[in-house]
Amino acid sequence: MLPTRTLGTQGLNVSAIGLGLMGMSQSYGTPEERDERESIATIHRAIELGLTFLDTAEAYGPYKNEELLARALKELGSGARDRVIIATKFGFRFGEAGITGVNSHPDHIRQVVDSSLRRLDTDRIDLLYQHRVDPSVPIEDVVGTMGALVDEGKVRFLGLSEAGEKNIRRAHAVHPISVLQSEYSLWERNLEPRIIPLLRELGIGIVPFAPLGRGFLTGAVRRAEEYPEGDFRRGDPRYQGENFDANMRAANAVKELAARKGATPAQIALAWLLEKGPDIVPIPGTKRRKYLDDNLGAVDVRLTREDMAALDAALAPGRVSGPRYSERQQAMVDR
User: Fold this and answer.
1) Separation of alpha carbons 213 and 325, rounded Å
2) What is the phi/psi pair of residue 307, to 5°?
3) Using one digit for the tens of pLDDT, what is the confidence trace for 139-194?
4) Does residue 266 have a pLDDT over 90?
5) 103 lies in a domain?
6) Does residue 250 lie within any of the structural domains?
7) CA 218 to chain centre
8) Is 28 a catalytic residue?
9) Span 236-257, pLDDT tens digits
10) 156 close to 14: Cβ distance less than 8 angstroms
11) In 10 A of CB 326, how many CB atoms?
């Protein structure tokens, strides 16, 4: 069984590695490549192995991912819901073409939470995140509404995603924030200079998404243009042109250490995060059991101080080429 970790000072206890469900419904691969039965089997396998932390959002699909999770838990029968921590998110506005902007107005938050509860077929959301900061709504109003949902029993713990220092501090002053979810990995280190010290000052846990560098750190990647239309990686600047070549060279350090340790590159990348602190719980995403089993094996990999230093140096921020997002996507990050 997986070891557990506690995120934040409010007592949110989860498995040391979680499971990101987004790819089961969007962003990676084509719709034809997605197999709902395999996705559900992957969720079942995760729970069987002691993984308790399942990450979804209304935006994934949109809406379809929460419904998929509900079906997976229903198939396991009574008691399955109580064995897991469900994290979901609000904060976007949708149109026919998908996400059209952000929306964290209090009435909208309540509507989304009620809809998520229906789709998830549950009476409470264990961890509710604001998916992206809405600059048109004071964070105090957002977290005040979220806190009221805690008081009403609809939500247990609160989180933010990709929030910056000022809003993290202001939010935490209104109601305790248990978690910040943000991209963090050997591949993306933007949290280290200022955000992680602040989170540790306030007692807020860290949930890294894309902990495998959107697959790049596994070594099993192709150039952007080789991915199908609709795949996130096709528009990822780090997968394009000279950036791709430079990043493949940098990621070789992970592959080489994995070979010496008798581990896989994915396990090394996740073990690096786990070693960074007991307040960190990565949520690698996969829609297949074989990759899930590989990822969870990271809890048994031990990295020495020398290993950590070598990885830190090989993938230091200056060694990774290209921005992590397009300009449009980066504009939604509160930094």
Assistant:
1) 12
2) -60, -45
3) 999 999 999 999 999 999 999 999 999 999 999 999 999 999 999 999 999 999 99
4) yes
5) yes
6) no
7) 17
8) no
9) 888 899 988 888 888 899 999 9
10) no
11) 11
Token code pair at residue 161: 């995603």
pLDDT, greater one: 273 or 32? 273
- Which pTM value belongs to this model? 0.95
Query: Which CATH number is 79's domain given?
Result: 3.20.20.100
In a domain, 203, yes or no: yes
Please pick, among 28, 60, 184, 239, the residue that the annotation labels catalytic: 60
Residue 21 and residue 192 in contact, taking contact as beta carbons nearer than 8 Å? no
DSSP labels, 191-216: TTTTHHHHHHHHT-EEEEESTTGGGG
43 assigned to some structural domain: yes
Structure confidence at residue 329 (pLDDT):
83
Cβ-in-10-Å burial (0-12, 13-18, 19+) of 123 comes to exposed
**What are the structure tokens assigned to 265, written together?**
């590159």
**Rounded to 5°, angle at Cα 92 from 87 and 96:** 120
pLDDT band at 325 (very low <50, low <70, confident <90, very high): confident
Residues 178 and 147 sit within 8 Å (Cβ to Cβ): no
Q: Which residue range forms the structural domain that includes residue 184?
A: 4-215+274-301
Query: Number of structural domains, the chain?
Result: 1
